Amino acid sequence: NITKPINDHREYRFITLPNELQVILIRDVLSFKAAAALDVGVGQYADPVQFPGLAHFLEHMLFLGTEKYPQDNSFFSFLTSHGGFANAYTSKENTNYYLSVDSSHLQQTLDRFASFFCCPLLSNNSASKEMNAVDSEFRKNFNSDEW
Questions:
Q1: Cα–Cα–Cα angle for 77, 130, 115, nearest 5°?
Q2: How far, in whole angstroms, is CA 143 from its chain's centroid?
């Protein structure tokens, strides 16, 4: 049972998929947008000592093509062409991926999104570029208490 404010017109449902993934579905009939997020219970604290930044690096790599959608920028191109966006962040104990898209394209978007987690390419060609991007973010935020 999901508790919600009386003036919240949205419909909520909590389900558990056969693979034990827990999902909250929220339906808003007044919205033309659809959104999704996936939170992975692995973050910076899970990084091996010899590979600091590994969780953040993997966060970046998942956006860079899958077996089903191998083009390097296809996910962002698809979202942009359908009024959407996506991003992710890695915290100490979690990595969260989230997106928004015109609701008429949610099914196609979720297919692309799901492929991040079942068949990512993790190509060598992208690895060095993303290592530099993660390192750059780390250096930029090094003096931030939240980082």
A1: 50
A2: 26
40's CB contacts (< 8 A; 6+ apart) are 94, 95, 96, 97
- 46-85 pLDDT per residue, tens: 999 999 999 999 999 999 999 999 998 899 999 999 999 9
Handedness of CA 74, 79, 85, 87 (dihedral sign): negative
What distance in Å separates the CA atoms of residue 21 and residue 111, rounded to the nearest whole number? 16
For residue 126, give every residue at least 6 positions away whose Cβ sits within 8 Å of its Cβ, in sequence order, or none. Answer: 61, 64, 65, 72
**Whole-model pTM?**
0.86
* Contacting residues for 58 by C-beta, under 8 A, at least 6 apart: 95
Which residues are catalytic, by number? 59
Centre a 10 Å sphere on the Cβ of residue 54 and count the other Cβ atoms it contains. Answer: 16
Instruction: Record the tokens describing residue 63, joined without a space.
Output: 């956006």
